[in-house]
Amino acid sequence: MRKIWETSLILVASxxxxxxxxxxxxxxxxxxxxxxxxxxxDSLELSAKNVLxxxxxxxxxxxxxxxxxxILDTDKLIAAGLIVPGKPNESRILQATxxxxxxxxxxxxxxxxxxLRDWILAMGEEPVETPTExxxxxxxxxxxxxxxxxxxxxxxxxxxxxxxxxxxxPSLSKLMENRFLLGDxxxxxxxxxxxxxxxxxMTTWLESLDPVCGSSELTAKYAWPSDASAFxxxxxxxxxxxxxxxxxxxxxxxxxxxxxxxKFKIFCMTILSSLEFTTK
Length: 280
Prior knowledge:
Order of helices and strands: HEHHHHHEHHHHHHHH
Radius of gyration: 34 Å
Mean pLDDT: 76
C-alpha cells in the first residue's frame, strides 16, 4: 500500500508541476553552501600562459624540456620540478628567465618575469572558499506557491461526489472530515478559505480521495483500463489527451500496483488531483 501511495504522490506532483505557470515556486537549498575556487586567479593564469606561449612555446611546445614536452602543461612542469608551487626562486623555469638564459635570443621583460613570479607564488596559496548561490533542494518539505486560486472546497467536493452513485456516499466522509484542512471555511469559527497549496495539502487531499477512488461503486462503474477514457470524460468534461493516454500506459506497467483496482485507484487520484480538476 505504501508503494501505491508513493506512486500516486509522484504522479500527482508531476501533474501539479506540469500545469503550473510563472507563479510556481520551489524554495531550494544546497547540501553544500560553499565551493572551492583555484588558488590562482583566472586572469593571472591566462597572463602567465600567454607569456609562455608567446616566448617559449616555439621551442618547448614539442621538444623536451627537463622531461616535459609541453611548456603549457602546468601539472607536468610541477611534476618535473621546473615549477615549485609557491616558491618562484626555487622554480627552474623562472631562474632561467631571470638569468637571461631563456629565451636565448631575447630576454623576458621585467613585467613578464613578474607575471611568471606572481603565477608561481599564487600556486602555493590556499584555495579561497567563496559562497555560492543556493542549489536546488530535493526535499518533500518544499512549498508550492501558486498564483491562482483553487476552487472552493465545496465545489471540489461536489465534483468528486458527482462521480459516485450518490452525492451522500460514505466514500466522501474522509473528504468532509478534512474539509478545513483542504480549504473550506467557517467564519464563525475563525476559519478562512485557503487559496494556496503545499505538499502537506496534496497529501491530505490524496488521503481523503483514497476511500473514493478505492470504493467498489466507483471501480464497478469504471473498469480498468477500458473505461479510463470514460472516467476522464466524467471528471474533466473532455476526451483524454495524449498525457492521460500516456498515464494509462505508465500505470498499467507500474510494478507496485498488482491489481486493476489498485491501478485504477492511482489513475483516479492523479486525475482528481490535477490542476484542471481542482482549479477549473
